[in-house]
Amino acid sequence: MSEPLHVVIAGAGVGGLAAALGLSRIGARVTVLERAPAFDEVGAGIQLSPNATRILQGWGVLDRLLPHALAPEALRVRRARDGSDLMRMPLGALAAARWGGPHLVLHRADLQRVLVDLCRHSPGVTIKTNVDVLGFAAIEGGVQVGAREDGAHVRFEGDVLVGADGLRSPVRERLGLGLGDRPIYSGRSAWRALVPGPLAPASALRLETNLWLGARAHLVHYPLRAGDLVNLVAIVEDSWRGEDQQDPWRSQAADPRILRNAFSGWTREARDLIGLAKDWRRWPLFDRYLAPRWSLDRVVLLGDAAHPVLPFLAQGAALAIEDASALARAFAAHGRDVAPAIKAYENERMPRAADVTMASRRQGSIYHFGQPLAFARDAVMRRLDIEGMMGRMDWLYGYSEGRGVRRRLLP
Hints:
The structure is a single chain. This protein is of the alpha/beta class. It contains 14 helices and 18 strands. The protein has helices at 14-25, 50-58, 62-65, 92-99, 108-120, 170-173, 202-205, 256-262, 268-276, 316-334, 338-367, 373-383, 386-391, 394-397, and strands at 6-10, 29-33, 45-48, 74-79, 85-90, 104-107, 125-128, 131-139, 142-149, 152-158, 160-163, 184-196, 208-214, 217-224, 229-237, 281-287, 295-296, 299-301. The strands form 4 sheets. The protein has a 7-stranded mixed sheet with strand order 5-4-13-14-15-12-16, with helices on both faces. Strands 7-2-1-11-18-17 form a 6-stranded mixed sheet. The longest helix has 30 residues, at 338-367. The protein is globular. It starts with 5 loop residues before the first strand and ends in a 14-residue tail after the last helix.
């Protein structure tokens, strides 16, 4: 009887943990290497759309997530200057029936905690923290991973290395994709904060995802943890050109006066909600050119390491979960035959990731239109009926794994 496939995964974010679960389900042995010393309560809200929850439901994960999540009944889109409604797309039961899984919002820490717990109770999965992956080298029949663990140099060996180590992936840096392969500042920053539910107005606690559209800025908010918190994400265009690579949740708080100035022309309801948040963290948003490949021999990328996506369609976590499912299916089909498994994975995932990446870039421009384009955008949104709204999201939320469903243009 042959040894099971052994996969080493760099990174224990959503993508790395989902990949560990998926690979464990097909009988692989998995070692996950995470650079952080511990999993702690950091982060903010995250959206999981039906294309992701459908996969988690098939894995038996969804039941573990639901006690920590909320299922918004609608996406409500509003005009920033006066608060008027532009569109209200149903979610809830209608979305679950149409796309095969619920649309959920939850705290990122809750999602990570559930995934970590499931991995630790899955056969063949080992998670090691405080391990910083430094590089890799091919060995006969496998790959050797060099790392630093608790200050000491160590080595891990496996059949495959999966780089799920984020936007600034050290694994990607060593794939030889060229000097131009680097993160590029998008010209926008995301400001994130959590407001205690008792301080928030009743309108912010409704079971809805709210999207406010203004010139050169937009605001997203929704309740978390049964209304104990309200998650705020304010995205603004700015001229930041630094290279700060710190984790915003572990660095100094950002100055909220900058944000208040950016939203000074908005309706009072939105400004008052922004004013309730006292502890903002600022993320410069980075993009990357689409890579011509995601792999080198027995090393392959997944999630943000392969295809960082701007947040305008809320698809970062969902795409990583799709990747994890596709990688597991590829190895289920090809077993220890690594090269065709990686090729099948790339062939399936690269077109899909390109579609979502490009659509997200385009959507960001649409959200931030000034006049007269904003007038035309708003008119289109107001004319859409329920079928028109939901039909425009079928390509994204109704994506069928392995069937090559391609993008439709968004409004």
